[in-house]
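hiii so my PI (J.) wants the whole complex modelled not just the main chain, which honestly fair. so below is everything: two entries, each one labled with what it is. i double checked the lines twice but i was tired so who knows lol
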Amino acid sequence: MAIETVTPARTLRVLAIAAVITGAVAVFTPLFGSTYIDLGRAFRGELPDAQIFFGVRWPRTLVALLSGGALSLAGVLFQALLRDPLATPYTLGVSSGASLGAVAAICLGLHTIAGLPALWVAALIGAGAILLIVLAVSAEGRRISSFTLLLAGVTINSVVMSVIMLLHNLASVGQSFAIVHWLMGNIDQVDAATLSWMAAIILPVSAGICLMARQWNLMAVGEDWAATRGASPHRLLLIGYLAGSLLTAVVTAVTGPIGFVGLVVPHALRLRLGSDHRLLMPASFLLGASFLAICDTLARTVLAMEIPVSVVTALVGGPFFIALLRSRRRSLWL
Amino acid sequence: MSVCYELSGAGMSYGAAEVVRNVTLTFDQPQMVALTGPNGAGKSTLLGMMSGLRPGFTGSCRLNGREITAWKRRDFAREVALVPQSLKLDFPFTAEQVVLMGRTPYAGGMFESPEDWAAVERAMDVTDTLEFRARDFRALSGGERQRVVLASALAQEPRALLLDEPTTFLDLQHQLTIYDLLRKLSREGMLVIAVTHDLNLAAAFSDRVVAMKKGRVEADAGPREALTTERIRSIFGVEAEWLKRPGGKSWIAYGD
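here's the output for the full assembly
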């Protein structure tokens, strides 16, 4: 299996296909659900189809698209920065920080903070706090190395996870149910304001990350390699860590931790497209978006009751990843 | 104009260990330099300082009159390229993609320009790597990988090329091919500085040999002068002798 060179023509071709797939997913997945709706009627603004399509299902599809894209892109970015094929958006503890914030809010019985939903605010605060702690621990003077970052992140992640378990243990039955529900990762209906601030952060940050793809290529090879080719590895590591964490934190605050998207989508695409981030990153964003939107559609339609989307991504992603692990022993392709 | 390195009183310590001490050297013309010495002599550290990877040194290390630490990385990478001892990849990049990364210091946008492609083509041609340009770098043999890394450095179109034991993993034929190429590049105006343990390669191909021991420069001269029997004994601690082949070429035999 040969990897094709990434040229502008090939990038355009692959991204056009990915964009068409994502567009189709965006338009067609809201049609599925317990109530039948007609696309034509919805677009003509006829009730109740238009109300269900634009008011209920489409915002949810958009959250799934934004979340899937952001998580996949953050996965590619962290894998390159840490030079670890097993890195995910959650490796460095940002999402467990978000979870800790949310769990604390549940335990304290908070519903709103400063007029905003308490869970989201607390999750963002938790994510930010853990990000700062990881940075403070891994900084050596003004420098920061990917290996220290990885070790610090993984350790702090474990510590935070055990604090979450402790809180869960101390919580009442009702709180415990809410905690488990949150930790499973769910895409719920959100209002227009939430959707717009998600988009306002995720889209520009993602675009910025994709535009730095040539630097991420260098970082995926090594820090000395990057430094002798005109890049500043410490600065790139810091920028990448902050940008990837921001994407992860915003998504996790709204949906809770949704597993496997940030691991499986990048690897599946790397197998097909190679490691050049100029192609891999935007393709991961678009197709990760589609993957999560499809998983969410399955989550709310396969059974009579809704199941957490994390269950679906893991059921689809888990076997896929096991197949990848097995193929690693047989060939070079992971 | 040729590139010019001036090291003056340069030193480097890792904690309490002083690995490079008070090194004063000038490289001001295109030539082929062999940097040699026993393990732990400070060769790789010196190369690291000269390639901008080890900024915490004492004394002064200037390139073209400007302190190395004051250069913009991107400008520096157009002047100086480094070939590391070996390169390990965690992700599937093709040989060609590895070489293409050498063009990042010239990047004007997201994609390579026709000049970039021309430079890559030339670099892969002279290193004899075109035949496996589309193969996964990790699937190549050690020698093939090393030639691809050299091609990536040449794609930077540097005026100084620093190499850390470039032929350690190469078979005999490719060792000679690479050294032939390095000498040719130095004749065409490039300053080439290669760390090596192979005194015969150093003697046969270089214009100048810098030998280090315990962080200090012990010899800096042409191969015949720098690698005399006495110097080899005092620097490397082995007995050696210059012998002449029937054809007239000289070589160094080690051991008792």
